[in-house]
Structure formats: C-alpha cells, structure tokens
Amino acid sequence: MNNQTISFASGKGGSGKTIIVANIAYALSKINQKTLLIDCDFSTRGLSFFITKGLTDYQPNNCLLEYIKGDIKIGDVVPLHISDNIHLIAPTKAIEETIHFETTNPESYSVALYELLQNFKNDYSVILIDTQSGTDWKSTLACSLADLSVLVTEEDKTSFRVTSIINNLIQDLASKKNIENDAIIKKNIRRGAFILNRCVREQSEDVISFLETGLLQSKYISTILYEPKVKLAFLLDDFVLEKYPEAEFSIKICEIIDTIFKESESIHNTISKLKNEFSERKESSLKMEKRPMIRIKSLTFITMYLVLAVAVFSIYFQGLQSDLIRIFLLVIVAILGWEFLEIIRITEKR
Ligand SMILES: Nc1ncnc2c1ncn2[C@@H]1O[C@H](COP(=O)(O)OP(=O)(O)OP(=O)(O)O)[C@@H](O)[C@H]1O
Ligand SMILES: [Mg+2]
Predict the structure, then answer these.
(1) Same domain for 174 and 297?
(2) What number does the ligand 1 atom closest to the CA of 224 have?
(3) Mean pLDDT for the chain?
(4) Is any atom of ligand 1 closer than 6 Å to the C-beta of 230?
(5) Residue 278 belongs to some domain of the structure
(6) For position 184, what pLDDT does the model report?
(7) Does residue 250 line the site of ligand 1, with CB under 6 A?
C-alpha cells in the first residue's frame, strides 16, 4: 500500500477541487487502489453530495463532525461504502450541523483529524481530503496534516494571489512547533504542489517556472483546460472518466496520478494503461466527429465534378468542329477529375 494522504485546497471557490478529487478517486479505484475520501468542506459538502448522487443525510458514524464533537469514538467511525474501492467520510450528518463548529477549537480539531488519519492509513492505499475554499481554518489545518497538499488554481491573478496566501498558511501551520501535540504537524511538509484548472490554453514554461519559484512556491503538477464535458458530467453527478473517457480531462487525471505517485511503479504501470485506453478513445471519437464532415465534403466535390463533366460533354457533342478544342476540353475534364480524387483522398486521410 502507498498510504499517502493528499489534500486539495484552493483560494477561490469553484476552482475544481471536488471534481478533481472525485475523478482521481475513480481512476484509482479502476486500478485497484483502495481510496478513502474525507470531505472537510463543511459549508457545501460538495464531494459527499456529488459522490452519493445527492444523498444528504448520513448516519452519525459516517461523519467527521460527530466524531470531532466526541459523540462517537474513533472505533465507531464507519466510512460510507460508495464502491468496493471508494469509501467516504462526510463532514456532517445533516447540513445544519455545521453550526456546531463554533464550539470546536482548532487544536482539538487537529488532534482528532490526525488520529482519524492514523486510524485509517493502513486500511487504504490513498486518503484524499477535499476542503472548503478560502482561508477557512478547518481547511488549512486539514491540509497541513497531509503528506502532500495540492492547490487547485485558475489562471487569473486573483486566483494566484489567494492561492499563494493559502499555501503560506498551510506551510506555516505545518511547521509550527507551539501546537500542543507537536507530533501532529510534520515539520518538513512538502512545499506543496499546484494544478492549473479551467484554463483556456496550456501555459508556457516561463509562466510555470515563475509560478513555481516565485508566486506559488510549490511544484507544478498539471494544466487542465476548460472542457464543457467536465461541466456536463458534474451536472449529471457522473464521473467524467466514466461518462466521457475520451475527454482530455480523463487523460489529465491519469497524468496527475502518475505525477503524484511517481515513486510507485505499480501505479505507474496500471495508470499508464488506463491513460492509453483513454487516449485511444479520444482518437477514435475525433475520427467519428470528422467523418460526417468528410462525407459532406466528398459529396460536394463529386457533385461539382459531375455537373462540370455534363456541361463539358454537352458542349462537346453540340457540334464543336475543332479537334483542338475537343482535346483541350477532354484534358481539362481529366485534370479536374484527377484533382478532385486527390482532394477527396487527402481529406479522408485526415
Ligand atoms: N476543467 C474544467 N472544465 C469545465 N468545467 C470545470 C472544469 N473544472 C471544474 N469545472 C466546473 O466548475 C464547477 C466547480 O467545480 P468544483 O465544484 O469541483 O469546484 P470546487 O473548487 O470544489 O468548488 P467549491 O469551492 O465550491 O467547493 C463545476 O461546475 C465543475 O463542473
Ligand atoms: Mg468543492
């Protein structure tokens, strides 16, 4: 088992944390890596809502808050079974419960979450934590407990600025020594990593290097472009990888997993196979999309040629006396016919 805990955070809301986390879990489940999802977004419960297809009320022993409040003991926490390889701990049993956080202090939250992670670490290959966007203390604390904290950002300056603030908060927390239980916070947490999402283009190496070494001070993982199919799958509560395996997003998720778990050869081999499968799907779907267009083009060319040939031959048989003109017309028809065939051949090849 890889026993990795990876958290996802963002400065601005709607950057795509939840959809990325859910689809990483799906891809990991496909390559037989057992994954525990911990939804630490107490404000929207977006991941729990998505992954249970809208189920809103959970049993107390499926939830984080009930355990943190001390209503249930750690041994009583039972993650919700989503599929054989995906289990979930939801934030609260009902959305109104969030209010109880007013009485919870950061230190006890930190200790409780740390113990929870320790408790489940050996049962799962990977633990993924989704968080609330912004500087919410529950999010930054959860991220500071992870082995790797991934920031999801859009490509505008505001997103970069807030992401940088969040990253500093997480890194500060991770290296803080004056928290009661020092063992909780790893002093040498990775510098963090970031994903650019909902982008309109791939970023140049200069921009990436500026973000890595300057503004964000963390490692670049990947750029994901804005893709309508992603939005559509989310709308329908479907995994993008399941509904649209041919989407570029599906391929990117495989690449992200490969980068995050680069030390694991078994993950590398299996995720590469899944990525190849998605790439093939993408290629054949591109071919399918082009086919009707090619047919229309070929038909247009053939029709044009036939009209021209009929016109030329009707002139030809209407008593043109000069052999020279007849030969000239025949040559023109032959050349045009050849050209049309060439155009059709090239278009279909593409
Ligand atoms: N690459 C993408 N292309 C198109 N749509 C995307 C992409 N990534 C995310 N989205 C869409 O953006 C919206 C927000 O995504 P998501 O809920 O995952 O973000 P979030 O960071 O978890 O938001 P919140 O801060 O509210 O929890 C969703 O409708 C999702 O489908
Ligand atoms: Mg979310």
Answers:
(1) no
(2) 1
(3) 86
(4) yes
(5) no
(6) 41
(7) no
Residue 314 has pLDDT above 50, yes or no: yes
Q: Say yes or no to pLDDT of 78 above 80.
A: yes
Q: Is residue 270 part of a domain?
A: no
Which residues lie near ion ligand 2 (Cβ < 5 Å)? 17-18, 46
Query: Rounded to 5 degrees, what are φ and ψ at 127?
Result: -115, 125
Structural domain harbouring 330: 288-349
Separation in Å, CA 217 to CA 30, 100, 210, 220, 285: 33, 35, 9, 9, 39
Q: CATH number of the domain at 49, please.
A: 3.40.50.300
- Model confidence at 11: pLDDT above 60: yes
204 and 129, same structural domain? yes
pLDDT band at 173 (very low <50, low <70, confident <90, very high): confident
Would you mind telling me the total number of residues written for the chain in this entry? 350
CB of 14 sitting under 6 A from ligand 1: yes
The ligand that comes nearest to the alpha carbon of residue 198 is 1
The phi-psi region of residue 35 (left if phi > 0; otherwise alpha if psi is between -120 and 50; otherwise beta) is beta
Residues 99, 231 share a domain: yes
Is the pLDDT confidence value at 200 over 80?
A: yes
Whether residue 281 is contained in a domain is answered as no
Rounded distance, CA 224 to CA 198, Å? Answer: 6
Q: How many domains does the chain have?
A: 2
In a domain, 94, yes or no: yes
Joined tokens for residue 195? 């994903």
- Please tell me the number of the ligand nearest to residue 48's CA: 2
Does 243 share its domain with 317?
no
